[in-house]
Amino acid sequence: MKKFSFLTILLFVGFITNAQEKKWTLQECVEYALENNISVKQSELDVEASEIDKKDAIGNLLPSINGNASNSWNTGLTQNVTTGVLENQTTRNFSAGVTASINLFDGLRNYKQLQRAKLSKLAAQYSLSQMQDDITLNVANSYLQVLFAKQDLEVLKSQNSVTQEQLERTQQLVDAGSLPRGDLLEIKATDADERQRIIVAQNNIRISLISLAQTLLIKDYENFDIVEYDYDIFGAEILDNSVYDIIERAKEERSEIRIAEANKEIAQQNVEIARGAYMPTLGAFVNYNTRETGANRIEYYDSPETSITEIGYVESTGERVVAESNNPAVPIVTGPRPFIDQLWLNDGMSYGFQLSVPVFNGFATRNQVKRSKIDVRRAEYQLEQAELDLEANVYQAYVDATGAFEAYEAALVAAESQEQANEYATERYDVGLTNAFDFSQSKLRFENAQREVIRAKYDYIFKLKVLELYFGVPVSDLRF
């Protein structure tokens, strides 16, 4: 038993350790965000709601069938449902029926509403696609910010390790009297400044991780971390296209334009639906109904006895003329017929057509048509504005990506130059040809150049991804 408990504890501890050591890749972050982000979920609900609206529109084209049933008790002077005679009684009455109706013609409004519902679903799907693109870019940007912060920290630590070596060497030279004490103080000041920047960089990592975790709706900030991977630059070939080619491709592929186009078509369908109110509507119906009562029945039976009645006399002879007739039927009160028998005996059907012709409704239909036409014009303006905005955004993204590429190349050149300058300054400092201040400044410039390379690289990667999305590259095909 103790052995089993010990193994259980080990497994539990191992599980907790694995959970804490999990590091997220960019692909995992994007997939998790697309599955759990609240904005994405709301867009998915919009798609589900549009599907229900579409089913409603389909249902309007189908017949409707309704059943009804009632059971009531009447006390006092009420009509006997079987004889039609008013009687002072207490009765129970049951009735039931089924009615089927169908709209044969309504100015094609139901058909137009179905077309509108299809367009609304399409627009909702485009909105979901746009939301997924936005979330993907947001997650990628946050992820790259964390990577930049981590690599920035590595640069600072690497430079500080060099400073530590120089500090030890300078201490030895100062103790030996080869260097002035001012050089040691300068190196110590550089070390303190680098340590401070390391602390700031560590805080930046935590802040960046928390920001990414909040984007993913992950609350375990303490154990959240990402895979430290040096991403390569993919997709640079997109810059071989002209900005105008990318703009034309974006107009064909981007959801912003598709949403605006769908909204315009929806507005046009609304005009057709409003115009349908000018047309007459024709419907057909059929109804089956029956009834039953708990009231007693009054039945009449012919009497077997006959009676002789004088009806006249013969004038010439004075002889009486008589007639023999049956006695009047005898009323007999009996209980109600069986329930099922009454339903069969008392049933009936009705069927027919219903025609409604609009004549005048206070200009309501005309005004609705005018409002719908205004909505069409508004949707046209929104489409035009969406195209203009897309052109501006694509052009800005193209300029940003081109500028980021040039900045990255310049940063590489600068870093290489600063590396050579730092090596030269180190050599001069080692042989006492320069002081600690000049050495620290050269080292700081090299450090800043390294950090700028990292920043420019990830900035360039992100802006390439933005441009790829505008070019119509699906989120799943983005390469990092």
UniProtKB/TrEMBL annotation:
Predominant location: membrane
Tree of life domain: Bacteria
UniProt keywords, alphabetically: Cell outer membrane, Membrane, Signal, Transmembrane, Transmembrane beta strand, Transport
Cellular localisation: Cell outer membrane
Annotated Gene3D superfamilies: Outer membrane efflux proteins (OEP)
Membrane-crossing residue ranges in chain numbering: none
Leader peptide range in chain numbering: 1-19
A Pfam short name: OEP
Family membership: Belongs to the outer membrane factor (OMF) (TC 1.B.17) family.
Protein name: TolC family protein
Annotated organism of origin: Zunongwangia endophytica
